[in-house]
Write a structure and sequence with these properties.
Blueprint lengths: L4 H13 L6 H49 L2
Helix pairs in contact: 1-2
Amino acid sequence: MSISSEDEEDVSEAALEAGLIKDPKSQEIAHLREVVSRLCREVEHYWSTLDFYQREAEHVKEALSSVKRKLTSH
């Protein structure tokens, strides 16, 4: 069974919070891994939000085109 990097980061962060990591460099590395992990999740969230609003914009454009066609055909 392999450990994912996300699991490894969770373990590192838990050890840091519990005070099990005493070496300052190890603490810094664990903290930076958590920061990077959090930033990656945030970026993923914003990409997802961007995709959602791009799809919504396409739906609105299609609806507007449909309304314009109906208005000009009368």
